[in-house]
User: Which sequence fits this backbone?
């Protein structure tokens, strides 16, 4: 879901996605950058994102990913679910 | 599952599967590019190249492991999808027994049809003859120079002129359309067999269950004591596998004929479409009424009825043999132009569908195959 969310910012390559995740989360989410790649493979296999080879701003060959319509749908439904869940947890904690 | 969606999913999956080797290469290139960008950024922030490299690797984690995990994603995905599809299919089957019955029935028909056709084709077209070195056994037929067609019979005098061909150890002649009624051991019944030259079994060399082939010195002589070789099939079916049948006389077309041998199981002659259950030697040519009705089939060069089957001499290939047969064919055409105009002699490996019938037989099998595949496709489409 997080990866899908970063891709709403446009076409990004793997390194940019990793950086963006780190920046936005304020370095709270510390994961090995490499573990992004199996995740990208999974998303692509499900048809939620599409990768395409291109050239990065500093002239390197890189693979750029973009959301597919299916991915957009998936993101919005996941976001809904997450909001419900987070809301429910918040209420439970609030009551407790 | 919507049909279009299902197909799209499968297409994607097949593509992933097919490309997964190439994909692995691209993925490692992608990771390399990530590391390079990281190193560049770290160096811009003031690190030495060495430090930047090790820091980039540390933050990235184990490249090999990430590769393996990615690969596992592809394969695991493939497997879970498969399991899901199977479960989905099982649920559908339980919910819709009528649909299931139809799907199973049409699949069974399709698969059964394919198996049957393969069974027939295997016997008719693919399996080698059950004889010694079947690839060295050639069938020799008359061909037509103008049309290129082959597979026709030749006259007995032409056959006798072909017989000394040097490419062959032995050339035998046969006529596979002899009908005979056997009246010993039970109700009279008609069987199909061949009239063959006495050297037939020396040239063709099938294995024998009992006894032997004909006596080449004697059994070509018209009017000699009648003899017969029977097939394993006939021996078992008609004579209950009598272990002492060799030497006994049986009644064929109301004449007493001595059994001299029984071929081993599986041998029914060298013609695919015209199987034989018995073999008579040339000495019995007068018993074959269609050959001796009004004609003199032994002497007339314009009475075509016999096919040749020859065993190649060691070290001689089919091409050489074919070339020699053609030379003989040309010579015959020049020597006896009236019956042999525009004809030649054709050599090919024995045991194939007769060259004259082949196109029809192949078309027939193709048609059968097409129909069966259609049934199978219908079954598949119905199950989606």
Assistant:
């Amino acid at each position: 879901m997080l990866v899908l969310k970063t891709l709403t910012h446009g076409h990004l390559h793997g390194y940019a996605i990793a950086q963006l995740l780190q920046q936005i989360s304020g370095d709270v989410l510390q994961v090995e950058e490499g573990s992004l790649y199996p995740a990208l493979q999974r998303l692509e296999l499900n048809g939620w994102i599409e990768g395409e080879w291109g050239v990065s701003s500093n002239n390197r060959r890189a693979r750029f990913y973009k959301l597919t319509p299916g991915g957009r749908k998936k993101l919005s439904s996941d976001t809904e679910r997450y909001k419900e869940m987070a809301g429910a947890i918040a209420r439970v904690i609030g009551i407790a | 599952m919507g049909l279009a969606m299902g197909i799209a999913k499968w297409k994607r999956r097949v593509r992933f599967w097919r490309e997964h080797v190439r994909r692995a290469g691209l993925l490692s290139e992608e990771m390399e590019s990530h590391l390079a960008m990281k190193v560049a950024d770290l160096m811009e922030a003031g690190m030495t190249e060495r430090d930047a490299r090790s820091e980039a690797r540390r933050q990235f984690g184990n490249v090999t492991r990430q590769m393996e995990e990615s690969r596992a994603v592809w394969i695991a995905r493939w497997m879970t999808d498969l399991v899901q599809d199977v479960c989905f299919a099982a649920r559908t089957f339980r919910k819709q027994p009528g649909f299931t019955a139809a799907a199973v029935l049409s699949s069974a028909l399709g698969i059964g049809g394919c198996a049957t056709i393969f069974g027939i084709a295997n016997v008719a077209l693919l399996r080698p003859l059950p004889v010694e070195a079947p690839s060295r056994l050639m069938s020799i037929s008359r061909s037509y120079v103008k049309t290129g067609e082959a597979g026709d019979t030749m006259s007995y005098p032409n056959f006798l002129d072909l017989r000394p061909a040097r490419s062959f150890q032995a050339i035998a002649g046969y006529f596979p359309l002899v009908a005979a009624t056997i009246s010993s051991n039970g109700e009279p019944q008609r069987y199909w067999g061949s009239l063959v030259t006495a050297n037939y079994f020396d040239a063709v060399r099938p294995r024998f269950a009992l006894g032997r082939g004909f006596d080449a010195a004697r059994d070509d002589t018209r009017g000699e004591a009648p003899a017969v070789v029977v097939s394993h099939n006939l021996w078992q079916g008609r004579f209950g596998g009598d272990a002492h049948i060799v030497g006994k006389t049986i009644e064929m077309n109301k004449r007493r004929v001595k059994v001299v041998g029984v071929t081993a199981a599986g041998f029914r002659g060298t013609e695919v479409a015209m199987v034989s259950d018995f073999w008579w030697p040339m000495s019995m040519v007068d018993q074959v009424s269609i050959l001796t009705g009004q004609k003199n089939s032994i002497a007339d060069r314009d009475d075509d009825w016999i096919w040749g089957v020859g065993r190649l001499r060691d070290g001689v290939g089919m091409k050489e043999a074919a070339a020699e047969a053609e030379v003989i064919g040309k010579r015959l055409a020049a020597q006896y132009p009236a019956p042999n105009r525009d004809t030649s002699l054709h050599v090919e490996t024995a045991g194939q569908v007769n060259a004259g019938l082949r196109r029809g037989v192949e078309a027939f099998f193709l048609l059968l195959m097409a129909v069966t595949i259609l049934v199978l496709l219908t079954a598949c489409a119905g199950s989606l």
